[in-house]
Design a protein that fits this description.
Layout lengths: L6 E7 L3 H16 L5 E8 L3 H11 L3 E3 L2 H6 L5 E4 L6 H10 L3 E5 L6 H16 L4 E4 L6 H11 L6 E9 L16 H4 L3 H17 L3 E9 L4 E3 L5 H4 L7 E2 L5 E4 L5 E8 L4 E7 L8 E8 L2 E6 L5 E6 L9 E5 L20 H18 L7 H20 L9 H6 L1
Parallel strand pairs: 1-2, 1-4, 2-3, 4-5, 5-6, 7-13
Antiparallel strand pairs: 7-14, 8-12, 9-11, 10-11, 12-13, 14-15, 15-16, 16-17
Bound molecules: alpha-L-sorbopyranose (SOE).
Alpha-L-sorbopyranose binds next to helix 8.
Amino acid sequence: MSTTDKELRVGMVGYAFMGAAHSQAWRTVNRVYDLPARARMALICGRDTGKVADAADRLGWDAYTTDWRDVINRDDIDVVDVCTPGDSHAEIALAALAAGKHVLCEKPLANTVAEARAMTAAAETARAAGARSMCGFNYRRVPAVTMMRQMIADGRLGVIRHVRATYLQDWIVDPQFPLVWRLQKDRAGSGALGDIGAHIIDLTQFVTGQRITGVSAVTETFVKERPLPAGSSGLAATLDGAGSVDGNGSPTGTVTVDDAAVFVARLDGGALATYEASRFATGRKNALRVEINGSLGSVVFDLERLNELEFYDATRPSVEQGFSRILVTEGEHPYMSAWWPPGHIIGYEHSFTHQMRDFIEAIATGVDPAPSFADALQVQLVLDAVTRSAEVGSSWTEVAPALAAVAV
Ligand code: SOE
């Protein structure tokens, strides 16, 4: 293992789902990879003193604070890891970059294109002074995804014709699920589109090497009013539609984001693409699936089987053709040699450890990690285009009901 005494002292803001996933990765990365620097889990920040103290103890952080500015102002913090809701990404990342810190920011980069542009410009300025920045599109670091990208780059699929991406969850199908921050535009920026749609936008651009150049979209909010979360009296005053109550007399608020987004896209290499991001795909828990069709074959990635790829090689003799299953666990694959022998599969959390590995390596060797804030800005521009397309309903042609057509 690494004998280096070079430390990278990390300050993380946020301690919920992503804070826990990132903590697992910071705890693990130097235990499995021999790196030129060691991460020190120095400081965790959260607004609630009791909860952040518990998180520090449970997740393995040296100290805690309730003011994110402490993370920025401490000279002995080298890296700022932003794991908060989207409405604070820009403020925290801009302050961290101005203070010369390296910054890892969860996806999507920001809630608006304007914020993402400012963050990208600040990252460029900080880069000149040696500060590195990266956006947390962790699925790029699943070995099967890196293999998908390599197969396409090596021409195994030929000319890419179709990209077909879905990311489906169902955690808010129950209309009684409360109005949490992910369902509020001013906190999250958007709903399924920015939260999980951002992943498939980044992932498909990453594996194909192509950029989305145009979209036509529809979005829907199926459940428009939800009960306020417990203990959110203060929240009620700030919410759209606040003051209404449901059939049980419980206070409700208006959902201000999409529950689902569906769009078609063109990519700059000529491919046609379809994207679906939904939190109402009943029965689908975290179902990300990407299929790429090319002139010489197809490849499929399914997050629920993240150690595998399905590959169709159209160059094989027709009698031998069919989708084959590739088990992506051999040591030759990126990241895999540090884990277990072939066949001993890895999971969702390993992608975060791989992310921290690459970030530490980039900082220690002075190279810019990917995805950069500029890469994440490109995703933000696509999110914005999808939102605008859905709002104006561009190129939407109504289909008259059959009976009406007959009556005409
Ligand atoms: C949504 O619930 C979510 O937590 C996303 O925010 C994460 O980015 C994704 O990895 C898992 O699902």
